[in-house]
Amino acid sequence: MNELEVSPGKITFRWAWQMATIMVVATLLVHFSGTDQKSPVVYLVYVPFVFGLMMSIKQHRDKDLEGFISIKRAFTTGFRYASLVSFVMGVFMFIYLKYINAEVFEQSLQEAERMMLSQGKSSEEIETGINMARSWGVFLAAISSSIGYTLLGAFLSLIAAFIFKNPRPIYIEVEREEL
């Protein structure tokens, strides 16, 4: 089947929702288990992200495209997957930092305040900066999380495109019997 005839939408959508759900559950498990936010265990959330990206490309190639896929199609499939996951994770990160684990954001504000004090900023500058961060910080953290997942997904999609590429031959030789 021709690549232009088949969209990777269904496969990427299914994998993105499955892996985003697993990532949300893993994040909540890490939080409610009392694991320190600076622990390397926190980075295990990226494992389902990478797995889903690879599987969405592989499944699109094998099921929809008869085992053939170009680098461009493999990249766009992975990037679509990453874009969907990044949107879901951005929304989740906003909810997580605003309502579930607001202490993490408050700790980062306290750390920023200590850093500004060590830089010799005036108390008025510190107060203005902290108030601005308090009003926009959670939203900006969610946006930067979403952008981070998208950029990571683009990078991994490029790598995966070269791993899974299998271009369709231009022509296929057909054996025939001589008369």
UniProtKB/TrEMBL annotation:
Listed Pfam families: DUF4199
InterPro entries: DUF4199
Protein's name according to its UniProt entry: DUF4199 domain-containing protein
Native organism: Pseudopedobacter beijingensis
Residues passing through the membrane, by range: 12-34, 40-57, 78-97, 138-164
Lineage: Bacteria, Pseudomonadati, Bacteroidota, Sphingobacteriia, Sphingobacteriales
Protein biosynthesis in keyword set: no
UniProt keywords, alphabetically: Membrane, Transmembrane, Transmembrane helix
